[in-house]
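ok so for the tutorial part 2 we go from a plain amino acid sequence to predicted structure tokens. step 1 is just haveing the sequence, like this:
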Amino acid sequence: MNFSSKNTALLVFSFSAELETNRKYIFGKGHKKENITFFKFLLAQTKKLAAQSGADVFWVDEHQQTGVDFSMRFTNAFQKLFDAGYENVVSIGNDCPDLSSELLQEAIEKLRQRNMILGPSKDGGVYLLGMNSSAFDREKFQNLPWQTPSLQMGLRKYVDLQNLDFNLLEELNDLDSGKDVRQYSICNPLTLLSLFFKAIVSSIKSKIRILNDFIPASHRSSYFGLRAPPKV
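step 2 — the prediction. this is what the tokens look like for a chain of 232 residues:
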């Protein structure tokens, strides 16, 4: 571990591929296997990114999270790491494919001189949140408008009320739906994620063609509950 990452914990706050599949239907409800495969790919990419950070990595999915709702679970995760003695905590999820190891390392470095680091996403949320222990107010933190388009505004108010020194990273997209993934694959056609997404779509289309060729139309709805995959 290099000096810049000492006393820094990287919190990967996410869900398992199976639970993500129940929350986000990237390929529709009828393609559970394909949805799970896609989220396993995202998780694998995130694990690779986290391993390159140089910080101590804590992977917190639904099996480690505690609390009755997202705000409490997320707050408890930060609290636990600060209680363990870490001065800085940087949190990421698994839904921002453009978050690079260089940008993550930049956030870790900047948090040495700042109270807070924000990585804004284009939907009003954040793809990265870094904070040192002196900036953590449990009650105010838990009461932020988590999982809403108002989160960035809420975090800016949090910063202003406590007179914190913070830094903004570049704005990036995160992936919350099949539409988001499809748009990402159009804008970034040669990325590994886009190629993987298109391969799954192609596989689904082949499966549907087989059904159309060999199963009478009146019986197709009973097979897998299939619907057409998203267009790419």
